[in-house]
Every structure is written in structure tokens, then in C-alpha cells.
């Protein structure tokens, strides 16, 4: 006993001794009332300094595991751990439909997984090698020295005030009138969208969106029991005629659109179409949720204002913003901009969900942004991604010659194969060490079986060329079979 | 034009110039195709270096607001911002019952607010002056140098692996058998509880809990439409007889308990009672959600194991842990420990809610914990809070002599006045500059109108004495009136 303790290098020794003795007490190897070896004895048994043992004993007493009696020694406290008869609950039968659907629709759990050595075009996360970690460190240290203690304690559900102010100005700089509007900070787009649907819809409500659209948005809409009406897209965005047909026929609770570098097609909705869309939804009084996804990753052409910029002082649109697709997605910061009144409700929902988004992250991110780092970063990132984007398009055209390449920017391209089943293709490519995202998961109906999304942000140019060639070759071999 | 720009010190000058020109373009003061002053001219108008202007113009071109034609100058791009007719949506009529209830039950919005100069006993947040910010900084810098880029990119819904491992060991050190169990990292207790109820209950389900209990838990149970059955408490925890009566009468989906330093009463459920409670719920097969609230803030006596330690390899209990009431609540990190199977479902729900909890925060927190900082911190904090607790009890007994003081630890005491309305008392105290939390918000029925919770973590001893005296005096004056 005691002499068999093994130390590791990562954890302070007195903590390891404390935990070791705790384990013996909890496991019943040391009984209540039993006397521990003196600190001198224990120090020679464990071959550590006596001070270390004294320190460990002190902690054990603090935590109520032993009692040190002056001049008499250390004794194990009255610890009650009576293991009870085993109780087996069959959780699978207890979870409700919401949890079951969450699991069923969780593509991370059910899609093919990347294995070492494979080329993966699944990710559209930013390339972390572009992150300016040094500037982020500076922002952290600066914020900590200004208000470190404060930002480590509880904050406010709405968000960190200076960040809210920064983002209001940021939205103004996109041409948005922020009069009468406010911002709620969320844990990324996903939470923003989930909170909005939780607050504004009920099961069986109808919601309009582009078809295809962001798969996470589809998942969340399904989890809320909504009837999703997808509207087909043209090369410059949603088909306005089909949109109007749907609006004439049905009553919709909400609509959801990704006008810039649309996920998964990469299409930028033209300014004219934005105006048409806005007018139509206003006419039928269906509030718009605009997803500002990747708006910052413009590679060419003139600035295109978000639909939110068309509203003026009107309040029929809620904008969800996030830098997560470009910068530091690990800290999960997004925002909702909308009418003050609705933000008030969403704030209470946010508080009931998780009190608030990390104040540390919000404060550090604010510090990082306001020094102009974001502008510098986006300049660099845009250059790198643009080059990669152009290379990816070129390779796709060259190697996947049966496919039609869609998309004007962002971190991915979308390919429409003419009638070839993308899941069959994936299976064959998987065997050759290449994976991608089959396009069907983005569709609200059964279309899209012959489409795929190819994310290029985290692969090298060499991998793009090699991977696309494999996809192209497999496409051709599938064509022959047809 | 241009010469009226005003610079501030916080933001780089080129960004201010860029934003200023953007605003003019978006506001229509600069028209599409219009030529901007040359960089030389602009530099003399704005009284900044020419390089600054060149830099600002470059950014404007990058963002698509201007086009720089070599040898010809800079021209405003084709920007379409057509402000549309105002669209007014009446959001208050569109929000659903869930959002309305969230707002209605949001005590931050509806309870009396602290004003400058007041003594507030409302908070039970930790005193941030005890935080060891230097150690936290070290942990941050260490983690950043090891894997800074990685933890700023997307992580996993379940959580940061080393933190999960640390917490599994931490739970083992409380006597919990972690065989067949797993951990999900959440944004604090609140998110953990919300995710569990979202996954395991449906509206109208019955849930058991102590009466009184944590007000945020009551809010979340109500928001899920659950029928809450509160069981009265004795001085050593829940009344077992009353608990069994309820179990005999009704079928319950879940039960929720706070066995240690119970909120709001501060009662520690005795080890014997823990065993009785566990056996009863196993008998009736009602899964337990154990809230590990403030378990760490033991001031006296032997270690009391959580109910989770009674389960052995059984899986009928889900434990929710959080350090938020003691350490760094601003980063919002908590965890759920439970059967691997149920954690799998909860993980998918977490992913559909907000992808994952900040990986930066999880990684830094892990680094902080594994160096033994938590043990050192809790030793210091326990000493400070214990002293304050004892002082608060002493003052309460001295000044609020009509009340019965309940509670054995934690960051608050609970006072039962004999028949005096705590809301009337609050009104009178408010006028004298003292606020506290009226106890009724913790009750699942109409009891508790004559109780109050007094948090002492963020007030000085002097404020405790002065504040409690005011409460005592007002109590006496209300007694006389009765």
C-alpha cells in the first residue's frame, strides 16, 4: 500500500498523492477512522519530500476526506459510499422524437468519415494557417489587463456591449439602417437560427427557402417540425416567378435566404433580384431571415449590399451574421440584427438557453476587431482563397468535364453531374481515398442526387488537382456503365 | 466634403477613412462612376499621409466600393442601394408562447434593478477579485503556443477531448463509477438542463423536484410545459415520506435534485437521505437529474459523495456539473455525465443547437485546471467565503431576529420570516437602498412568500452588517403593523 503510486509529469505531485489517497478511501481500501502513516513515514514510502505530503494531507482535510488531529496524526473521515444495486434504464426508449431526429439528421454521425491519408473536400471551414494568432494573443492580453476579472464573471444575455456597438457600426457600413434595431450575440449562426425558429414558429408552419440550401438550416427547420418549401434557383439566385407562385398559393410564417455566396451553390443573388425578392415578401407580409453567410468572401466585382440594406427603417427582415466561416469558428460568435422589439424576446430566450455567450471570447474578439485586424486578415485571406478558388474551378472544368461548375466565390464550388448518382460516385472515390459532400443533403426535395459540393479551403493545390482528377475519372467510368 | 472627417484614437486611421468614404457611397453622396480626389489631393484635404490614403483606397477597392484605374484615378463602383418602401411587421403578435413565456419568466427583466449606491444581496456569482487572472493568462499562452490555430478552428460537439478526460477523472475522484458513461460539455448548467429536458420530456410530462428549488430550473421546466411536482424539504433535505406519496400517486418522466448546498436553502442532503432517495427513485424507475451545484463549496464536515456515486455501473442518473458558481462563470462551461447511449443523443442535440461550446475556452480552462490551479483557488476561495458565510449567519441572527436562518454553506443564506411578506419587505428595503431576492421565485407552489435569499459573495462585510440591519429594522416595522 502507498508505495505503488506512480507519478506523471503533467500534474503537480501533491495533487496526485491527494487523488491517490482519495481513491483508496472511496474504494474502501482505507476505512473511516483509520490512521494514515505520519507525514514523515509517508514521505519515505512515496519517496517525495515531507512538505509535499504535508500539502497533500492539508488538501485532503480541506476536501473533508481526512481529519488532522494535532499531535495524534491524520485519520480518515466518516465517508459514506454505499454502492447500491445496479439500476438499468433503457435510454433509447426514453428519448423523444426531437432527440431521435437530431441524431438521425446528424450527418457527422452518419456520413462517411475522413481517414488518415485521404483527400477531403468535405470541409468549408477556414484554413487555420491563415489565422493571425499573434494578433489574437495581443487582443487577449490587452483585454485581460483592462478588465480581465470582469469578463471572467457573469455578463449579459444580449452580449458584450462594445462588441454590439462594433457590429451595429459594421452593419451600417454595409448600408443597413440600424435605427430602431438592435443586436443579440449568439453562439454562431446555428444558435441564431435555432433561437429565431424557436421564437417565431410552431410545428407545421410553412417556411420558404432556396432549393438547395444550407444543410444545417434544413436540419433545424425539420427539428422544429416546419413544412419546408424550397424554391428552385436560377444562375443569379432564386427563381422569382416560382417564388411568387408559392406565395400566392400558401400562407408562410417565415422565409430564409442566403443571398451571397449561397451554400452550397456559391451563387450571388443579383442586386435586381434582391429588390424583387424584398418587394414580393413585403407584399405578402412574410418576414425574411437573411443569412449573411460568407458575405465577406467577395472575390470580384462591385460591392453588393445585403437585402437588409433595402429595409431602411422598416423591420420586416432579421439578419443573421457570423464570421465563423472565415475567422475563428472555434469561438462560436455570431449575431442577430433585427427590430428592437423582437431582439428583446430573443434575448430572453437566449438567457433561458445558456445565460449568454462566453464574455471572454466576445471581449477578446472585440479587441481583435476594433484594432483593424479583421480588415488586414480578410485582405490576406481573400487573396489566398481567390487563387485557390480559381484553381479549383480550372481543375474542375479540366478533370470533371461531364459536370457543370456553379459558384462565384466562397470556400467551395458546386458541381452538377448530368444524371450521375453522386452517392455512387462517392463510394467509388472513397475507395480511391477521396471524399466530398454529396449534394442531396442540401435539397428540400428529391432533386440534387447528381450534385456535389467540393470544399477547397483546407486542402493544398496539389490535393485539389489530384483529388479532382480521381473524381473526374470515376465520373467517366460511371458514365460508361450507364 | 472630405475635410470634415473626424478621427478617433482607437481605430487605425486608414480604416476610419475607408468607412467614411463607404458611408458617403452608401448614402448616395458619392455616385456610381464619380471620380475620387487623387491620393495626393485627398492626403492634403484630410491632413494625413499619402500612404494612409493609398492604403484606404486599396481596401475600398478590395471591398468592391471603388475601382482604381491605373493612371486615371479611383472611381466609385456600381453600387445598388435602392431604399425600399417601409415595411412594418408587428413582431409582438408573431412571437409564439415559448418566446412570450421566456420573456415573462425572465426575472432579469422584471425584478427590481440594482442602482448605484445600493447594497445588493441578489447575486450569488463568485467574487471576481478572487480569480487568479495571472494563472489564467499563463494557461491561455501555454495552450496558444501548443495548439493555438487548432483551437480557434471548428471543434467537436461533444467537447474538447482533454477536458472531457479531466472531468471523467474529476468525477471518479468524487466516487463516481464512470464505466459505460461519458461526458458532454455544455454552456454551463443552464444549457445542460435545457438539452436534457428537450431530449427526454414532452409537454404535460410530470417532473419531481425539491420545493423550493433553483429558479432557473423552474423557468426551464415551465418553458418545456412540464407539470412540476415540488416535494417539501426538511432541515436535512427532501422529505422522503412526501416523496414516496407522490411516487405512489403519479407517473413521473424525470426527477431533479440539488443535494449539496441546495439553491436557495443551502441545505446539504444527508448521506442517509441520499441513499433513501436513490432507492425510491430506482424502485419507481424515475431517472434522476442531479445538479452538482456548489458541491465544491463545502465549509465543514466530512466529504459527502454525490448521489451519482451510489449508482455504481447503473445508469439511472444523469449528473450536471459546473464550476460557474465558483470560478469563471463568464466562459460558460459545464458538463453532463451520463450513460454513453444518452450522451450520444444529447451530443447530436447540442450540435443542432450551437455546434459546440467555445473550443478556445475549453482548452484554456483545461490547461488551467490540470496544472492544479483549481485546487489552489478553491482552497483560497473556501477560506474567504467561509469567513463571510459565518459572518453573514451571525449578522442575520443578530439583526433579522424574527427570521429563521437556513443553510450550511454556499454563497448565500436563506431566511424564513414568520409570516411577513418578503415582497413588501423588499419594497421598503429598496427605498433604503438594499435589495435581495424574494424567496417566492424558488417555489413551485404559492409557499415561500415569507422567505428571502441573501447572497453575500460580492458584498463586503461592512455591507453585510449595514444591509442586514436595514432588513431587520424593516422586518420589525412590518411586524408591528401586522
TrEMBL record, chains A, B:
HTH gntR-type domain segment(s): 11-79
Short name of any one Pfam family annotated for the protein: GntR
Keyword Transmembrane found: no
Domain of life: Bacteria
InterPro entries: Aminotransferase_I/II_large, HTH_trans_reg/aminotransferase, PyrdxlP-dep_Trfase, PyrdxlP-dep_Trfase_major, PyrdxlP-dep_Trfase_small, Tscrpt_reg_HTH_GntR, WH-like_DNA-bd_sf, WH_DNA-bd_sf
Keywords for the protein's UniProt record, in alphabetical order: Aminotransferase, DNA-binding, Pyridoxal phosphate, Transcription, Transcription regulation, Transferase
Molecular function GO labels: DNA binding; DNA-binding transcription factor activity; pyridoxal phosphate binding; transaminase activity
Source organism phylogeny: Bacteria, Bacillati, Bacillota, Clostridia, Eubacteriales
UniProt record similarity statement: In the C-terminal section; belongs to the class-I pyridoxal-phosphate-dependent aminotransferase family.
Protein's recorded name: PLP-dependent aminotransferase family protein
PROSITE patterns, alphabetized: HTH_GNTR
